[in-house]
Automatic annotation (TrEMBL):
This is Uncharacterized protein. The lineage of its organism: Eukaryota, Fungi, Dikarya, Basidiomycota, Agaricomycotina. It comes from Mycena pura.
Amino acid sequence: MILPSPSDAIPTSGMIPDTYFQPIPDLIESSKKLPVSGYPSKLPSPVSPPRYQSLPRPSAPITYTFTPMPSNSMLLAPPPNISGSQKPYYITVSLNCFTPTSYITSVRKQIWDGELVGDFEMGASRSGNPGTLCLRGNEYPIPDLLESQFNVFRTTWKWKVKSFALDKVLYWDDFHGGGVLTCYSSQDRDSSNMLAKFTPRTSLRRKGQPSESPNLLVTSDGHVLFDDILMSALIIERMRTAPS
């Protein structure tokens, strides 16, 4: 039997593209230019602990609207020309490539590759792994931050604000019905200590009529904890609407 020489074993350019043998560093650099949805072309700088004292604080509540965007994303933005409002938040959802039944929701400031606020990963259903949250550069199991209590007429949630500056708890409930979630600064839960209210889309679309959009109303005091309010609202709504 005649064995092939080493030169015979080397593939010709006609069989396998030359790019197959491209050096790995070059592949890494070229992959950064690919416009993959949900994955920025550059890594964000580390997020420092929140400086809540420097955040804008409007004199009245502001209603922010969730607007669908292409590629499994949406934008949370205030009405135009509102003094003291937050900049828009860009929210994307992508699959975990290793576990395709698990979804990662990422929240960034203003644009799709802007400053990272945080992300959380949860499965497609409520069963199994409860998921994780990364906020301000630190990752936690979701049950370490969010405590749920299910009752017949009201479900309540307690969200622990993890920060070097604050020791705070947000109190959410669905007492108003219709999928509306309300956030308070204390367990008293009255209008004087309301921080935010999330209202989902409740009506079906009709031809010739403007479609209803989900919104997040945030009070003046709520703006001090905006990132935590948004992240907790997204997680609670995800849990509330996920199949069992």
